[in-house]
Design brief:
single chain; 103 residues; mainly alpha; 5 helices; 58% helix; disordered C terminus
Length: 103
């Protein structure tokens, strides 16, 4: 997530979510609520469009990192472009390991 956000990015990691007894559905809902809250707070920012794009990119990166932890890089890389798009992880090919996201 962008550096200016106070929510730790690893809050949504597979490891942390399963430790907290959360499942994928809970995680997606909580992540969506968090994104919506930030968008609501900063709705009047002069760079709102850029801010929203960064948040949506962070959201996709977090989901991709969770799928990567679940299924492994090679399994996900073997998906067709349509499969990646369906899962919302079309950015996976550009996702590098990221210690901040615990991947």
């Amino acid at each position: 997530m962008p550096a200016f956000m106070s929510t730790p990015p690893n809050e949504f990691s597979f490891k942390n979510r399963t430790t907290d007894g959360k499942n994928l559905q809970d995680t997606i809902v909580d992540l969506s609520k968090s994104i919506a809250a930030y968008l609501g707070i900063y709705k009047d920012a002069f760079n709102y469009s850029q801010f929203e794009a960064e948040l949506r990119g962070s959201e996709r990166s977090i989901v991709a990192a969770i799928f990567q932890d679940l299924f492994g890089c090679e399994s996900l890389r073997s998906l067709t472009p349509e499969g990646k798009k369906f899962l919302g992880i079309e950015i996976l090919d550009t996702l590098a390991p990221n210690a901040e996201l615990d991947v």
